[in-house]
Amino acid sequence: MKIAVLGTGMVGQAVAGRLAELGHDVTIGTRGVQATLARTTPDAMGNPPYSAWAANYPQVRLASFADAASEAELLVNATSGGASIAALTAAGAADLAGKFLIDIANPLDFAAGWPPTLLVKDTDSLGEQIQAAFPRLRVVKALNTLTAALMVNPAQLADGDHSVFVSGNDTDAKKTVIDLLESFGHTDVIDLGLISTARGTEMVLPLWVRLMGTLNSPMFNFKIVR
After folding, report:
1. Distance (Å) of CA 105 to CA 35, 78, 124, 139, 147
2. Which has the closest alpha carbon to 147: 6, 13, 3, 21?
3. pTM strictly above 0.85
4. Helical packing angle, 84-91 and 126-133, nearest 10°
5. In which region does residue 164 sit, left (phi positive, over 0), alpha (psi from -120 to 50) or beta (all else)?
6. Whose CA is closest to 198, among 133, 134, 107?
7. What percent of the chain has pLDDT over 70?
8. 95 backbone dihedrals φ, ψ, rounded to 5°
9. 7-64 residue pLDDT tens
10. Greatest CA span in the chain, whole angstroms?
11. Are 219 and 149 spatial neighbours (Cβ–Cβ below 8 Å)?
């Protein structure tokens, strides 16, 4: 499958790398190709620059948001939540129409420092805002409740049978996304319903952030026992 991953950070790199390993044709989209390649210092989280990661994945192309989206069958939004609408706008509404989008982004607001709050909550969600802004895009919220390493390889935890969630209005889009998540190794994918249910998974993030601080590690996930 031809897949465009929008975002060059830790999440974008993890997802793009795993997709490439599984044999997909992957392009990473960025705001500025030359600026991304020119960075030589770690990001704010201490992750190595994109060029260092890309050296291990020569089969993954880097392109502008628009060029990455133009030929993709499926897109992944791995941008920061506050920049997601702008990134998708740059990708071009015409090139998004009818395509599936996995929205991994969370609407985290770091304006007041740490821990972050949410830019949107309770009566709306980033997933819904993306769907409203691009009504012909088939949005599925998924993978936003766990760290990047576990998104693409849940078996890194001793009990790999933990839970992930999907929310979306389009049944076919959700089926495609669920199949993709299962190819990553996820065995408990819970379909919550319409895209409005993304409010719930996005509002998990304040709890997730505090758990990470208490556990001193992002390597954990939720398991729904029933």
Report:
1. 22, 6, 14, 12, 12
2. 13
3. yes
4. 30
5. beta
6. 107
7. 100
8. -80, -10
9. 999 999 999 999 999 999 999 999 999 999 999 888 777 778 999 999 999 999 999 9
10. 49
11. yes
Residue 25 φ then ψ, to 5°: -90, 105
Asked whether 5 and 79 are in contact (CB, 8 A), the reply is no
Pair 190, 168: CB distance under 8 Å: no
Which residue in this structure is represented by tokens 């769907």?
131
**Which residues are registered as beta bridge partners of 2?**
25
| Pick from 78, 99, 98: nearest CA to 87 | 78
Find the helix or strand (DSSP H, E) in which 4 lies.
strand 2-6
Distance between first and last Cα of the chain: 34
Two tokens, residue 94:
């015409």
Q: What is the pLDDT of residues 23-35, one digit of tens each?
A: 999 999 999 999 9
Q: Which two tokens stand for residue 80?
A: 């920061």
Tens of pLDDT, residue by residue over 73-108, are 999 999 999 999 999 999 999 999 999 999 999 999
Amino acid occupying residue 152: V
Q: Closest by alpha carbon to 147, among 129, 134, 162, 127?
A: 162
